[in-house]
Amino acid sequence: MNGQPSTRARRTPRALRLRDFPGVGIIAVIAVVFLYIPILITTLYAFNDGDSALVWKGFSLRWFGEVAQNANLMNSVWVSLQIAVVATAVATLFSILFALSVERLRARGSAIAMAVLSAPLVIPEIVLAVATLGFIRIIGLAPGMLALMLAHTSFCIPFALMPIRARLKGLGTSYFEAATDLGASSWQVFRRITLPLLVPGIISGAILAFVISLDDFIISNFLSASGATPLPVFLFSLIRRGASPAVNVVATLLLVLAIVVTTITFLQSQRRSKQHA
Fold this sequence. Notes:
The chain has 277 residues and is an all-alpha fold.
């Protein structure tokens, strides 16, 4: 009857399955194959004994030794690591301070500040590269290590900021209000509550900024100079002269580094989650 509650048991919504979306499974498989098969091939051919990057001549560790003895290649690795470490440290520190500061702004001011800092995410990188090169010329700074560090720091900030900002927004205000009510100073709240709670976001942001800096080619190509050639620029020059297994070796080593860093970060986050459980 109308107006009376129905006695019929409500059905639990059926969970969606892959078969409910015809064609999605095939597309997903094709996408995975397209993404990961080239990585597997690159890793396999890093152990190639021949002089060509794509012609298999037998298993060998020869090119790992060649890479280790290539002074120019190792110098480019060292340059990239220096730039990435400096850019990551400065961008992460700036992102922490900005995320904490923007929380005190009004909604409109916060949105404007975030839009300004997030601009490098939507501006084409070639535009950023040309603009950065023009700017350093205007201020009298030549391409090289300092210019690369400044540029990498600038475009790494939004990547470091996103996880930190998301983590801070997810915390709410109850922790900080309780600490303030108990008489904690602003510094005590930051050191004992805010910073420890932000650690997962800080780690995620720092890793993201480090990978973005280490991987950048366009801006690095515009700002590199003799003696300050980042690894992506050096690898591109190797490929233009003819692909060799040395390129596969470097790609494999970078892949291993990414896997190690990701694994360590995952294990630390799991350990931290168990401690707070």
